[in-house]
Amino acid sequence: MTTNIAVLVSGRGSNLQSVIDNIENGYIQNAAIKVVISDVEDTYALERARNHGISAIFIDPSDFSNKQDYEKDILEVLKDNDVDLILLAGYMRIVGKNLIAAYRNRIINIHPALLPSFKGLHGQQQAFDYGVKISGCTVHFVDEGMDTGPIILQKCVPVLEGDTADSLSARILEQEHKILPEAVKLFVEGKLKVEGRIVVRT
What we know:
The chain is of the alpha/beta class. The chain has helices spanning about 15-25, 45-50, 65-80, 95-100, 125-130, 165-190, and strands at about 5-10, 30-40, 55-60, 85-90, 105-110, 135-140, 150-160, 190-195, 200. The chain has a seven-stranded mixed beta sheet with strand order 3-2-1-4-5-6-7, sandwiched between helices. Strands 8-9 form a two-stranded antiparallel sheet. Helix 1 (about 15-25) runs parallel beside helix 6 (about 165-190) and helix 5 (about 125-130) crosses helix 6. The longest helix has 24 residues, at about 165-190.
């Protein structure tokens, strides 16, 4: 049985590419990205999708009077594609309650910091400015809060002497490209179970 995946994006889509590559090389089996949805019209992530024969759709939030109507349109696309799992890969919007309710524990986000520290935008810059010695990235299920859902995987990245926020971000991104596909693989294989705040590997 194939797990149908939708990916929500806003930017370049390098994490999208990492999942595409790991499906195509067979690391993630029995899964297919059915659709990529962007809230930005000319984002490179949509081009990445088209390059791999994946449906690429721009839904303009400004066409809707509120988030609920905007996400209703997204839900229609997800339904049309029989989507089982949603990935947020650089999606720069907070997911609304209706979308979360429809896909409870089936929405996965990648965040460029070690949650629960440095939530929200620019987690790498926040960590760098704070002066931490270890940063990293987190894959988690999405709930109603901002970057507060149950944690699936984390990867530590040391802050090196002479680092800048950009050099740290680049090294964190390398690890994002590893743990997001790993989390997708575990989900597809039915090896993740949410017990309260804890994600257990079964």
